[in-house]
Design a protein that fits this description.
The complex is a heterodimer of chains A (106) and B (259). Chain A is mainly β and 106 residues long. Chain A has one domain: Immunoglobulins (Immunoglobulin-like). Chain A has no helices and eight strands. Chain A has a five-stranded mixed beta sheet, with no helix packed on it. In chain A, strands 1-3-6 form a three-stranded antiparallel beta sheet, with no helix packed on it. The termini of chain A are far apart. The relative contact order of chain A is 0.33. The mean pLDDT of chain A is 95. Chain B has a single domain, classed as Cytochrome Bc1 Complex, Chain D, domain 2. The termini of chain B are far apart. Chain B is built from eleven helices and seven strands. Chain B has 259 residues and is mainly alpha-helical. The chains are: A mainly beta (106), B mainly alpha (259). The interface between A and B is medium-sized, with 14 and 13 residues.
Chain lengths: 106, 259
């Protein structure tokens, strides 16, 4: 279970610049740490985040071990038409989560 | 008041004053959040930016989960947490009549699991226990802390206070040496706060996780190079109890964010 917190305005005017905030639950284990017995803790991070607006990719980010746990990614876009934002997080150990949010553009 | 009584009261006040002299006056009490940068404060107040909310969401799911031998979820007895759990965290740790000593919120949840769900206790600092505790405590957000009303708690608060002021460890420091006497100063780059536990369990950026008050206390005890008490130890619960009673009237912030 990996909950995500998404903040997309429910309504916006056409052409308005809107802020999108996403918070994904993930430990982001760097792969550089060792246990008390000296074994390496294997890397377990989110490697890629994408956002699609009505199917078209509008934002993508590659993530690396230096990014803190529970990555908070926020960005801006222009509200062009009503529809949905689809978010996808992909990572190590087969991690794959998605979420979506609807927007009404007037 | 008769003159004789007045003398007795005055004598008590004089006797008590050397101890009370270092305590923070109620008007000067400040939550740890007031020592933070505006950016970290904004992170706490925005529920979609506060990582602690991830645990609260998990806790809400666990509240309704009845996957145990008796098939009972928390919600089957307590119904909607928004109503039934409102104000609960603001009065914990509370006295348990059966055990005869105070228990904190984590211990109450595990007692409830054992007695009513026949489920194994959740480990301290496990994601599930933190999530349930955060979900329950969040229902008391913005409510004033009232811990310590029960007169049966008085001896345990006194013990907690003793632990708070007692010097220990290789650095020979007590909690009060920093959090009562030097809270307006810095330790290296970090603000020394007054140590009011208003937002636990809270998301600490240093931990990159949610953590309990006991985790924080153990960190502090290790910091003064003393041997920390085990999770759930009576000493830690007494310290929690004293700290909560010391923060009486301050609003609950759970899930708080701290640097």
């Amino acid at each position: 279970m990996a909950p995500a917190l998404i903040n997309v305005p429910k309504k916006a005017k056409r052409g308005e610049i809107i802020e999108i905030k996403t918070l994904m639950s993930h430990i982001m284990e760097t792969g550089y740490r060792h246990t008390s017995t000296g074994e390496v803790v294997p890397r377990d991070i989110i490697t890629s985040f994408t956002c699609r607006y009505n199917g078209a990719e509008i934002f993508r980010a590659d993530l690396f071990p230096a990014i803190a746990a529970n990555p908070f990614i926020t960005f801006f876009t222009v509200a062009t038409e009503s529809g949905t934002f689809d978010f996808e997080w992909i990572g190590d150990k087969g991690f794959s989560e998605s979420a979506s949010a609807a927007i009404t553009v007037e | 008041m008769s003159p004789a009584r007045a003398i007795v009261v005055a004598a008590l006040l004089v006797a008590a004053s050397p101890v009370l002299a270092t305590e923070i006056p109620p008007g000067e009490r400040r939550s740890g959040s007031s020592f933070m940068t505006p950016e970290t404060q904004a992170m706490q107040t925005d529920d979609t930016a506060n990582p602690g909310m991830l645990w609260v969401l998990d806790g809400e799911a666990l509240w309704k989960n009845n996957a145990n031998t008796v098939g009972k979820a928390c919600a089957d007895c307590h119904d909607d947490a928004r109503a039934s759990m409102r104000g609960v965290a603001a009065r914990y740790p509370a006295f348990d009549k059966v055990l005869g000593h105070p228990v904190n919120l984590e211990q109450r949840i595990n007692l409830c699991r054992a007695n009513h769900q026949q489920a194994a206790p959740l480990a301290y600092e496990s994601r599930d226990l933190l999530a349930l505790t955060a979900f329950v405590a969040q229902q008391s957000r913005d409510m004033p802390i009232v811990t310590g009303d029960d007169p049966q708690l008085a001896p345990f608060i006194a013990k907690g206070r003793e632990l708070f002021t007692q010097r220990q460890g290789q650095l020979n420091l007590g909690c009060a040496n920093c959090h009562d006497d030097n809270w307006d100063k810095h330790l290296a780059g970090s603000a020394i706060t007054q140590g009011h536990p208003t937002g636990y369990p809270l998301y600490r950026l240093e931990w990159q996780s949610l953590g309990s008050l006991q985790r924080r206390l153990r960190g502090c005890i290790t910091g003064i190079r003393a041997q920390p008490y085990d999770y759930g130890a009576p000493e830690l619960v007494e310290l929690e109890l004293y700290l909560m009673s010391r923060a009486r009237g301050m609003p609950i912030e759970t899930p708080a964010v701290r640097p």
